[in-house]
Amino acid sequence: MGLPPPPEPRHETPVARAEPGPRAGELPHAPEMGRARQLLGRFHVTGAFWFRFHAWGMSILSKRGVGVAVAVFTTLFFFCLLNIRRAIARNLEVVLGPGGFLRRQARIYRTMWTFAWCLSERYERLVAERTFRIDIDLPRWRSLFAPGGGFVMVTAHLGNFEVGSMLPAFEEDRQVHVVREKEADPEAQAFVQELLRRAGGTRYVTHFEGEHELQGVELLNALHDGGIVGVQGDRPRSGGRIVTSTLFGRPFPLPAGPAALARAAEVPLVPIFVFRSGRLHYRVEIRDPIAVARTGDRQRDVAEAMGRVAAELEWAICQEPHQWFCFRDVWPGPRRSRSRS
Prior knowledge:
Strand content: 15-25%
Number of strands: 10
Radius of gyration: 19 Å
Shape: globular
Order of helices and strands: EHHHHHEHEHEHEHEEEHEEH
Strand order of the largest sheet: 2-10-9-3-6-4-5
């Protein structure tokens, strides 16, 4: 089913203040779990069982076997994960416009199918060490790495963001610190952290949001030392401050942290998105660096920078709507979707 061409992003001036974000311990954009999480525990879709099972499967399956597994489990989860299906459909309705029942189901399945491939290939990279083909504008990429200069790499839950975040560590021998949101299951979080530690070595350090009080100082020091900090800018953090911007013409909360960190370190924000193009094949898109102003109004400086990040997020989502993996309804309540012709 073909997609119409994406519209030009339209943005209002963001709200120029930092507001309280989700309370500590909340996972604002995680799938709604309800009683199913309580009943299933580690066997819930967010639980440790599926993380371990998926990684084990990718470690033993052939490339052809991976395709069979993706087809089987995408179809299984399509029929089982009703809350996630509903969230995908409603979020894509804002991006792509309204559609009938069959069109909505096709959008849901295509998004879940793409997510299954990206997640499976992530594990193939981490546990099977299969080779990826990566398309990237090398001169533009290398222009980011001025001697001694760091930057904040901001991306989204879109495509395979870990491919982009690992590139500086492996290709440029730069220290990379990646900040991730906590997993719903602590056992699953520990499993992911260990996999990334083994795959990334000493040059690729994974942090989980709020894991200790001096995390901000550690990241600031890394940037001052010429390192790179990777963050996801499309969802607020537990216990963090937010900036209210707009996405597709609707209010959308963004974390204030990426711009605040870049401002404090006096380094740019660089939006980088990694789109899946095919089997073990990804395309890295490097957008223009965003300089965070340093005026007397810190909150406005941060809000304006995150407003520019919102425009880049909208651009990226428009390129590959079915690679935006947001499994909670981010615009709850009645809404009228704009049509796209």
